[in-house]
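Readers of this paper often ask what the protein records in our data store actually look like. Nothing more is needed to write down the fold, since each code stands for a local backbone conformation. Below, we set out a record of this kind in full and without editing:
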Amino acid sequence: MSGESAPQLPAQMLEAIYRHARAEFPNECCGYVLGSGDQAELVVCDNQQDRYHAVDPESYPRTAATAYTFGFKDLRRFNDSFESGPRATIIYHSHPRVGAYFSAEDTRAALSAGWPVDYLVVDCQDDEIREALLFRKHPTEPSFVEIARFEGAKI
């Protein structure tokens, strides 16, 4: 949308993201990508949502089944990447059993954070990964648009 091309996701990295989604199922997985293309690094994160929910269910009403939160160390490394490379380019998370779409909650959180990254949402079903969609902030609207689609896998 902004004239930039979609970040490259090597096949082995996409497979690792899919395997992470399957390993965390029926909860959401989360992580991010530093850099792009063959030089990209995958950072697999632990979804801390259940811990936050247990401590403060009023502020964190959702569990890891429907939300994700990075832990402090993961978030610190993510934030530091914008000061010294390689820079974070993609945040990923899975949607167990509900499809790959950028939800209203995803939009709210992404707009609030304001990070200059794309968002990969993985459609994780009981027996497969159906697909993954990559979203980018619309250049003038408070919304996100699909910029790439990736085939799923029987993982």
Remarks:
- The chain has a mean pLDDT of 93.
- Residues 5 and 140 are 17 Å apart (CA to CA).
